[in-house]
TrEMBL record:
Keywords of this entry: Magnesium, Metal-binding, Transferase
GO molecular function terms attached to this record: all-trans-octaprenyl-diphosphate synthase activity; metal ion binding
InterPro entries membership: Isoprenoid_synthase_dom_sf (IPR008949), Polyprenyl_synt (IPR000092), Polyprenyl_synt_CS (IPR033749)
Family matches, as SUPFAM superfamilies: Terpenoid synthases
CDD domains in the record: Trans_IPPS_HT
Protein's UniProt name: Octaprenyl diphosphate synthase
Cofactor list: Mg(2+)
Domain of life: Bacteria
A single GO BP: isoprenoid biosynthetic process
Protein species of origin: Oleispira antarctica RB-8
Family: Belongs to the FPP/GGPP synthase family.
A Pfam family that the UniProt record links to this protein: polyprenyl_synt
Function: Supplies octaprenyl diphosphate, the precursor for the side chain of the isoprenoid quinones ubiquinone and menaquinone.
EC number: 2.5.1.90
Amino acid sequence: MQVKDIYALIEQDFADVDSLIREQLSSRVPLVEKIADYIVSSGGKRLRPLLVIMTAKALEKSGPQANKLATVIEFLHTATLLHDDVVDTSDMRRGNPTANEKWGNAPSVLVGDFLYSRSFQLMVELKNLQVMDILSNSTCVIAEGEVLQLVNCKNPDTSEEQYMDVIKGKTAMLFEASTHSAAVLCEANAEQEQALKEYGHHLGMAFQLVDDVLDYEGDAETMGKNVGDDLAEGKATLPLIHAMREGTDEHAKLIRKAIRKGGLEDIDAIMEIVKTCGSLEYTKQIARKHVELAQQCLNHLADTDAKEALHSLARIAIERNT
């Protein structure tokens, strides 16, 4: 199943979510609407709400409640993007200037706060305490993951284990929350609930690992962001951690200096190092393992088009170039 086939399966639900998103962006403050609409409309794949809808469909419980949960997830994700771009001083996302580049840091942070608040208003309307528990816990874990990444920034001694902790919090957690909360909302049995929770976790881990590979071998125009952004920010991602461990002393010395310093002065040399040391392939290999684990989790679901779509999404996560 290809991407277009996956989206075709939930075309009406996705349209309903889009309408709900537009409706819930309303604010008595015009700038709030303007910035929120800009970031929500900027061309993202809406993968996390897609996971909510597809999980509900796989459990034969799709409908207004699942669509409302998908909107909550999209608002939580968009809020983190607004905050992340300020923290990372990013100037491009999805091929467009970031909100902080267009309007400044303060409005971006405050509109991110608005979206967090709106998401919790919608969450209350779901009238499901377990879903609220999952999502409120997830937002804390995501924030901790971002702080942990900030602490590790420009630290060349970041270990592989520490790196995994960061991506588990800042990326995989919201994927996990998407499928887990949808399973709970749709009254999945205990076995299915745990399987879907783990599916989301492994998919999120694979997704971030591939993102970190693309930072060194992607194309800026295709990705909609700058190649080398992670290195410019001094982030010790897995390709760099592996290259420092497996490369020569000179390789490690150059990478350590680049991480401490930040910027792109040594980007060409480092891109060559991570390729020759097999660091990109090593990172892809771990991503593939997470995809396999994600797909195995789906054995607990009945055979449906939605299950096949979830299976295909895991495969697409490591085949993508954006």
